[in-house]
Model the fold of this input.
Amino acid sequence: MQKTAIIIGGGVVGLASGLALARRGLTVRLVEADAGHRGASWGNAGHVAIEQVEPLASRAAIRSAPGRLFSQGGALALPPGQWRTWAPFAWRMMGAARPHRFEAGKVALSALIAEAMPAWRRLAESLPERGLLHEDGHYVLWGSPAAAAKGRAAWAGADTGTARFHDADEAERRALASLLGAEPAGAIRFENTGQIYDLGRLAEALEAAFRAAGGEIVRGRAQLELAGGRAGVSIDGRAPEVADHVVLAAGARSGGLIALLGHRAPIIAERGYHIRARSHDWPAHMPPLVFEDRSMIVTRYADCVQAASFVELGEPDAAPDPAKWARLERHVRELGLPMRGPFERWMGARPTLPDYLPAIGRSARVDNLLYAFGHQHLGLTLAPITGEIVGALAMGERPLVKIDAFDIERFAGRGRRT
Done:
């Protein structure tokens, strides 16, 4: 009989995993509560970030945290009313930042990210809509000579994996000056990073490809529970269904779901904000711009320009903070960017584990459970390679990348790394 699979989560990781399984001949149903593509997968910066091979759980990040707080003009927000959520996460992050753990995480993440762009090419070439993946790199800009000198030196000393960059040349600086009204104090251009040209079209293309491969999308809220010693999926309170494979890819809600099967996943909602405006005055082929000293990335999509920022650690369903959108609008004004309101405002929750590594693997406790969540800022970047890994695991094959470091049992508790 044909093997069956149920995917919980319709973000980019869930869809990539579902598509991989359906194309391997499984009967796949994907359960997604959000019918409007409002999740973090569809509101991010669109950046395929192959340069980000160092886990963000590092001693350097912890040392710099006070200066990066929102109250100091930075992008890090720790809402006082949600300290019971972010304080334990911060404590675990400090443990994960110990040098030996950071270095081991970097080795594992580097190997995974090295396969990200090849996997994106394979996926993009297989989709019904062409031209979604652009490999034009991105710019990193600074607003003052001091910031430029410090930032350029930091990138020169950083491990960027397979990504390459150069100082912006004369033509590139002229193009930036034409857009900004003046040359930035400093600029580098990454040469081989990527961008998804339209997130909405990506969602539609993935869903169309999934259905064409025989997959079914069910709109509803899924719950995990044990059913005869296996993972069962209850949809909108109905009796649980047991498939040959259950794949948990529910983003920031994955921690609560997997806990019902005995796993510990100390995930937090790392909330980001964006504003969007029409793109009439923005060059069509300008790659993403990272204004590093403002912790903001501006992306030109097919029919809009988006400015995004902020790392707000808290609860996924807490009310958004309008001050974050106001700060983004102020940055746009101060930089003289050709973005005209009214602005569309959005907030979404990145799923983040305290060591800033994803959870990818097969459960050691429930034999039909696979998991793929916790990709933090790298969900879009790592979705295709994660889908390929899920497909290999379901078929009993060895994944293309070693995934031991992404085992959820690393959070198992006493006597284990937490």
Remarks:
- The mean pLDDT is 95.
- The longest helix spans residues 99-114.
- The chain is about 30% helix and 25% strand.
- The two ends are 40 Å apart (CA to CA).
